[in-house]
């Protein structure tokens, strides 16, 4: 369906109509309209909670669930009310240069930024899903100013603050987009440091993900203590640890 043909007010009204429907088709349409409206205005969720009396909104996102090496990193960001940063979106949609550009601006303009890191050993111990939740809680705890409400990229958290998980939140919310950029740049910089010591894994390019060159380097050289031992193909073989 081409939503461009409809006024925003009509689409917002349709969302209210679909909100309580249990029909699969209606649920699908609801998600499509919601994403469309958020791409037009990535302050929609923030405005909703400002109108409910929440002033300090923390957006939370993580990076690093899929890589074979290194930590999972989460960031929590509180932006000024009605903050604008043209072009800011999900970090996966941005070039490395753009991410670095937005990182510097967000760090300068944000009311508060917190980062949480959980290393590969903890990931292996408790699994990546639980490690992600811990990283997010750490990021929130590391905010110097405590939020009134927390909005996340589809992750519920058992914390004292009200938490609202938003599916595709890194695309829909400017605050979660900001958190995704901080988390991504922070983790990428960690991998660049590791790349300086062990360039043959090509972490500079693959950022630890299971690319062909990364896996070939593991087979040839072995693994690092920073590799995740519970991830395939590492868990399927007995590789020597070289550091």
Molecular structure report:
The chain has 3 domains: 3-40, no CATH class; 49-188, Ribonuclease H-like superfamily/Ribonuclease H (Nucleotidyltransferase, domain 5); 193-236, no CATH class. Helix content is 47%, strand content 12%. It has helices spanning 8-18, 24-40, 44-51, 96-109, 120-126, 128-141, 169-172, 174-197, 203-206, 212-221; strands at 57-63, 72-78, 112-118, 149-152, 162-165. Helix 1 (8-18) runs antiparallel to helix 2 (24-40) and helix 4 (96-109) packs across helix 8. It is globular. The termini are far apart. The mean pLDDT is 96.
Sheet with the most strands? 5 strands, mixed
| Rg calc | 20 Å
| Number of E-state strands | 5
Low-confidence stretches: none
- Annotated CATH architecture of the largest domain: 2-Layer Sandwich
CATH superfamily of the largest domain: Ribonuclease H-like superfamily/Ribonuclease H
Structural class label: alpha/beta
Cα distance, first to last residue?
Answer: 55 Å
**Secondary-structure element order, N to C:** HHHEEHEHHEEHHHH
CATH class of the largest domain: Alpha Beta
Count of distinct structural domains: 3
Do you know the CATH topology of the largest domain? Answer: Nucleotidyltransferase, domain 5
Q: Quote the average pLDDT.
A: 96
Helix proportion:
40-55%
Shape: globular
Strand order of the largest sheet: 3-2-1-4-5
Instruction: Report the total helices.
Output: 10
- Beta fraction of the residues? 5-15%
